[in-house]
Design goal:
This protein is mostly beta strands. It is built from no helices and eleven strands. Strands 2, 4, 5, 6, 9, 10 and 11 form a seven-stranded mixed β-sheet that branches. Strands 1-3-8-7 form a four-stranded antiparallel β-sheet, with no helix packed on it.
């Protein structure tokens, strides 16, 4: 599975962005999908996940109520809606697919300032 993130950019605090993760090479239907991020000088942290059946979603406490993860299996896409952005949300955001094996995208930069 190849993953390509897009949709990052620079926004002011309080702004919104929608990140996309396009998958190719195999259907993402059986995969648990997640978004991670890595801020300047920080380790990579989990932000949100969505299970293969779209029956369960989870969020980091720091983004709960502001970010929303969703998936479109028919089009092999995963999304992360980022609202009420804060400077501390500045990071490279990565898409991850897990199902027996794990795949990562190359990341997309989000800058809030």
């Amino acid at each position: 599975v190849q993953l390509v993130e897009s949709g990052g950019g620079s926004v002011q605090p309080g702004g919104s962005l929608r990140l996309s993760c396009a998958a190719s090479g195999y259907t993402i239907s059986p995969y648990c999908m997640a978004w991670f991020r890595q801020g300047p000088g920080k380790g990579r942290e989990g932000v949100a996940f969505i299970d293969s059946g779209d029956s369960r979603r989870g969020y980091a406490d720091s983004v709960q109520g502001r970010f929303t993860i969703s998936r479109d299996n028919a089009n092999n896409m995963v999304y992360l809606q980022l609202n009420s952005l804060k400077p501390e949300d500045t990071a490279v955001y990565y898409c991850k697919a897990t199902h027996f094996a794990t795949f990562w995208g190359q990341g997309t930069q989000v800058t809030v300032s």
